[in-house]
Prior knowledge:
Elements: E1 4-7, E2 10-12, E3 18-24, E4 33-39, E5 46-51, E6 57-59, E7 67-72, E8 77-82, E9 91-99, E10 103-106, E11 110-114
Parallel strand pairs: 2-11
Antiparallel strand pairs: 1-3, 3-8, 4-5, 4-9, 5-6, 7-8, 9-10, 9-11
Amino acid sequence: QVQLVESGGGLVQPGGSLRLSCVASGSIFSRSTMGWYRQAPGKQRELVADISSGGNINYAEFVKGRFSISRDNAKNTVYLQMSSLKPEDTAVYFCNLRYFSLYDGWGQGTQVTVSS
């Protein structure tokens, strides 16, 4: 079973930046699609961005131009660089690993709060 551990969340003022990290255990990371999702109180979990094993990237419309996803296969780590943060970005951010149809796992989440 793959373990995913997120870090980097916290409290930031509007317009600020944060970088989230997610470290995965095991040996399938480099062959997996990695994604960042978020869930705000009372709302459904939604995709923020994902990156395939080949480096193809998808962003949700609401983060284009502000967030950047990247991965370091040597470190089994995926990052989410968040800039120009808005109060509506406040949510718990979750890391996801998808390995074909064989495995779909989630981290425990990290809280991001954007407030003055």
